[in-house]
Amino acid sequence: MDKALYVAMTGAKHNMQAQTAHANNLANINTVGFKADFAQARSMPVYYGEGQPTRAYALAESPATDFRQGALIETGRDLDIAVEGEGFIAVQAPDGTEAYTRAGSLFFDSVGILRTGSGLPVLGNGGPIAIPAAETIEVAIDGTISIIPLGQGVDAPVLVDRVKLVNPPLNAIKRMDDGLIRALNQEEDIPVDANVRVVSGFLEGSNVNAVNELTSVLSLARQYEMQVKIMQNVQENSETSASLLRTNG
Question: Using one digit for the tens of pLDDT, what is the confidence trace for 150-168?
């Protein structure tokens, strides 16, 4: 009975953790550039000293992120860009390190620093991109930013900088708790990839499949109820056994 209670207890606990992952995916169904987390369950043997495992318990984990592209949403806004195919936009994280995102809703602040919708500076060839006052701003397919300065005509475009676009191997990056993509080896920045392309006037939507996530949440809720029922049955069996022992005594 002890083993049954232990297995049911760990199963219920990790069912709740898996529900959290799927619920987070659902909550970000409308978040620009969001990538869904995978979730899986497996059994893990419990070893106590040398020898064979004494029991097994359930383990829920998020082994990877689904980096498949989401749908492109046309906005017509000059500073909205979407990475077409594979690749990421390099940004400066709050701790000053380099991180990566697919959220391309950009704006420039009061001092001209180009930022993402969440306020992170966008990185260019030499650090955060600064844009001087301009009549118009255009982002080319390769990330190059050109402007028409204030008071100048359309025949006097100026190249300002180029958005740093990278395309690291998926096994070399991981999405962290803050939602940003980071290199597993944080001692080295990922180099620019000239093959990465962006589309101006579009944003990439979330790649979350709402139907799959909702059915997964419902399935996990039923599994949780089943684990709780097992624990209740174990308790009832334990009480019955104790009652029989008192009677025989």
Answer: 877 777 788 999 999 999 9
Cα 15 → chain centroid:
20
What's the pLDDT at 19? 87
Query: What six digits make up the tokens of 36?
Result: 């869904």
In contact, 114 and 128? CB cutoff 8 Å: yes
Q: What is the Cα–Cα distance from 99 to 65, expressed in whole angstroms?
A: 16
Same domain, 82 and 96: yes
Q: Are 186 and 78 within one domain?
A: yes
Report how far Cα 212 is from the mean position of its chain's Cα atoms: 17
Say yes or no: 115 and 217 in one domain: no
Confidence of residue 249 (pLDDT cuts 50, 70, 90): low
d(CA 58, CA 38): 17
Assigned token pair, 39: 């979730």
Contact 221, 20 (CB under 8 A): no
C-alpha distances out from residue 146 to 36, 129, 161, Å = 34, 12, 8
Confidence of residue 79 (pLDDT cuts 50, 70, 90): very high
Structure tokens at 81: 């860009």
Domain interval for residue 116? 72-204
Q: What SS3 state is found at 71?
A: coil
Residues 35 and 149 in one domain: no
Q: Are residues 164 and 79 in the same domain?
A: yes
Query: pLDDT tens for residues 95-142?
Result: 999 999 999 999 999 899 999 999 999 999 989 999 988 888 999 999
Please give the distance of CA 207 from its chain centroid, rounded to a whole number.
11
> Model pTM?
0.80
